[in-house]
Design goal:
Layout: H1 16-24, H2 29-43, H3 47-58, H4 64-78, H5 84-99
Helix pairs in contact: 1-2, 1-4, 2-3, 4-5
Length: 101
Amino acid sequence: MAYLQQDTKMDLDQNPIMVLSELRKQFPIELQEYLNVFEDLYDRKLWHQLTLKIEEFFSKPESGPFQIPLFRYFISDWENKMNKLKLVTLGLCVLKQFNGI
């Protein structure tokens, strides 16, 4: 699967909620609940819980093709609020998607 046409009308300056909305169009049904939870936790500024939910999402093999755009356009917006070790761990997961490891 091509990495979701990563640059499909997503702008780095876009609102993170708009990014999730755009990604929702591309996510399979079984993963869409994650986007709902991401949006809710982001709105409530529950950064730790959001980080844990994203880790759970990244642990699912079917999330692979969606990790790059999620990291690039959503996580990068609030990465300064995330535990730095968790950020690096998520970044390494995303790196594996780039390298196809």
